[in-house]
Amino acid sequence: MQLDLTALADEHLAAARTSPHGRSAHLVVHDGVLRQTVIAMTSGTSLDEHNAPPAASLQVLRGRVNLTAAGWAEELAAGTLRMIPKERHGLSALEDAVVLLTAVND
Question: How much is the pTM?
Answer without folding.
Answer: 0.93
